[in-house]
Design goal:
60% helix, 4 strands
Amino acid sequence: MSKIKVLTPFPGVIHVRYAKQQELATAFMRMQEFYESSIEGFRGRYFTREAFKEAYMRDTGLDTFTYCSDWAGFNVPGRTVNKFIKKFDLDASEQRLVDAILEHKPARGRYYVIGTFENGADSTVLDHELSHAFWELDPKYKIAMKKIAKGVSDQFRNKAMRELRATGYCDEVLEDELVAYLSTSTMPDITDLFETLNVPWRRVWMFQAEFQRYLKDRKSGKK
């Protein structure tokens, strides 16, 4: 089993970085799906790996379980991590992840856990997960992004929400996901994900400029 790295790039943000995508996804899978699974019967409930694997294969319509290659980044609010620890019997990979989180979580206040892997993960994956952390931890970030989002047409928003649901996100996180994708993804990735030529590019540039401004301020210690 490869060594994992734990970083705390910003106050309250715990970044767990694995060497391999398989190990990352295996460790985060049940915690992530407990938080935001779009498959009925899993979000907020206890479940086994076997039960989720069967349901995921039915949902994707595939004969093989592709979860560990489908997802390159993970994000879970601390409040959900706390509930997960109490509700689940942890296997070895989950215990290792939880031990790393508990060792680095702040003594008080909210925190957010993100996960990436080293081989094949580019900077946009990390930025995407950081957007989720900022959305949860800083009301100023959420307010700024919501203000930009108001300028997105209903037509594009509805199309984007449908695509995100189809990708595997539950309704409760759709706005958070929309902001994260538009704020941190490349132009080709945005076009591919939402399968439309009517992407509001001027609005996308506003999202991305705001994310970069916020990230720069956080790195410099500006609040």
